Every structure is written in structure tokens, then in C-alpha cells.
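> @MW can you paste both from yesterday?
MW: sure, first one:
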Amino acid sequence: MSVRSPAEGGGGFIKEVPVPGTMQESSCITRDQVIMLARYALEIEKHYGMPMDIEWALDAEDNRLYIVQARPETVWSQKEEAKAEAPR
């Protein structure tokens, strides 16, 4: 797992942190956070009027979710377009 934190020796801000075995299969966000992300996604897609690829981050210090990037989704929508255009 990578976290944004000062690395030992001053070599930047990314360092690897081992995840304990007991935590490797557990969820990293709560049910309420999943619902919040879904609401954010619906609002972002409504705003742009198209499916969006949305990246988010969870701040470990304040436990807040942040949308860090949203761009038009291209993979699944192109597959759907190709399927719709295929001769029958």
C-alpha cells in the first residue's frame, strides 16, 4: 500500500507501508462513505451529462473523502457504442 507521507531520508512523499494480514481482506471505507461516493458520482455525471471516470482519495488524518479527478469514461461506453452499431 502507498501513502502520502514524508519518506525516511527525505526522498519525497510516497512510502510503502505493510498492511497487517488481519486488515488485508477488510473494507477500507465504510458503508456511509460508499453511499457518499455514489451520490458524488451521480452529481458529477449529471453535471457533465455523460458517464465519468471518477478518482477519489480518503484522507487518513481527517477521514474525509475527496474527489481528485473526473474525466469522461471511455472504455465501457465505447464497448456499448460498438455493440449498438454492430450489424445484426
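MW: second:
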Amino acid sequence: MLNIAVLVSGGGTNLQALIDAQNRGEIKNGRITCVISSNPDAFALERARKNGIAARVVSRKEYVDIHSYTRAVTDALLEQKADLIVYAGFMTILDSQIVETFRGRMINVHPALIPSFCGKGFYGLHVHEAVLESGVKLTGATVHFVTEDCDAGPIIMQKAIEIKDDDTPETLQKRVMEKCEWVILPKAVSLFCEGRIKIAGRKTVIS
């Protein structure tokens, strides 16, 4: 049984999707053992506590630079004996220290179809605003491995939805979360815990 640590910064809707999937028995060979937040006021911490999951804060504001903050988060994950780290709305881009320590054991969910609308600056509503401005007809979500380059790691799963003519950034964000992120993130976590994902260069092979 693998130890799953979830990194959060805000409301924790993707964390809740993982907890719900776990409670339904959909995550095989893994269990969420720890939630770490960069924000002491994140509601995600309350979600964790309500479900009996250890919750701790490693506040970004308490560290002078990203290097020292990354070290603190890495140390916290090592203390928790994390086998898999899931970025679920974690709003800080950490440096290469954490990748070197947990290479191939960190995944992120991004609210667009990578390689479009991703990278630094593409987060939250900014992603969906850019999607609507571009005129594309499809969007969705991507679960991928975390590497040194933002949103550039090997893709594990993607799910798409059609964009409606009357969509706003807010309605699109909600639909991408409910129809895409909450579906593929628990599936990808379970695949990892079952040992069914193999990284082959920039690609993944799922058995």
C-alpha cells in the first residue's frame, strides 16, 4: 500500500475528488496519508481533517526564497514517507530539488489539454480565459508527471469536453473540473499505485 501525499493551496476540490474516490474503493494499492498546504487558511486542510488525514502547513510566506521553501516541502514529504506526491491546486512552482528527490513519483493535474495553455502564468481562471479568447472548440484536463519544466512532464491521461458558445471562464472552469479533472486524477493516481504506468522518454505507457 503506497503512501499518497497531496499538495494544496486553496479550496481542495481535487483533493475532495481523491478522497471520494478513495472512499468508493477506486484507488487501488494506495491511501492518502498526508495533505500539505502552502497556505495556512486553505479549506483543503479542513477537508483532510474531516476525513482523518494528517494535515500540515508549510507556509510559503515563512521562507525567504523558493530554494529554501522547496527544501522544507521536500523534507516534509520525506518525513511523511511519501511514495506518490499529487499536486492538486498547489500554487507554487518548486525548484529542481524536489524533482531530483522524487523523480517519477510526482503528478499534477492541469485544467487544459497540454501542450496548449500551460506553463508559467497559466493557472486558475487565467487558463480558461485564454482558452475562450483563442476560439478553440475543445478543452479539458491533463494529468502528467512533474519535471523541472512547468507543465512539461510525460502525460498520463487527458480528457476533453466541448466548449459552449455561451461559456464564461467561470462556467468552463466548473465543467472542466467536474467532467475532466475529477475523473482522470483519481484514475491516474490508482494506475500509479498499481504500478501500471511506465515512463518511456517523453511518453507514458499504461499496462
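> thanks! The CA atoms of residues 66 and 119 lie 17 Å apart.
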